[in-house]
Amino acid sequence: MAGPVVLGWLARAASPALALALVVTAHVAQAAPPRADPAFTFDVQGPCPDAATVRRAVQAVAAAARQRFDLRVRATSVGARLELRSTPRGEGAPGKLELTRHLRSHDCSALASAVALIVQARLMALGVLPPLPEPLHSAPVRPVEAVRPAE
Hints:
Blueprint: H1 4-13, H2 16-31, E1 40-45, H3 51-64, E2 69-75, E3 79-86, E4 96-104, H4 108-126
Parallel strand pairs: 1-2
Antiparallel strand pairs: 2-3, 3-4
Helix pairs in contact: 1-2, 2-3, 3-4
């Protein structure tokens, strides 16, 4: 696991969205207690994204969840469709549909990453994942002014 110095450097060097994903993933991975039972069941059908890629992308989020969920991902002609259901403790009962999203991309890795971020955001909204930590520091926001190039 990368330390705060490495993550801080990556956050400054990367785009804001990638920096948020790095910090969120690192926080969830550190906060994940070991589980005896699997928090997620995965049902991934189709070549893009494949089951192994989705499982790797969602692994840290799934390990930190304080409730059981079923994640279903189906490849479509333009990307993927994801469904997240909460799983009741009784076997065989259908779970409550928590989220459905249609994703458009032909980049399999990007689809798997998007699934992980969408699932993580929904689980945080449901309160089954710990909240994000406070930022280490907050830089003052300076206004940006557009300037015409000199002619």
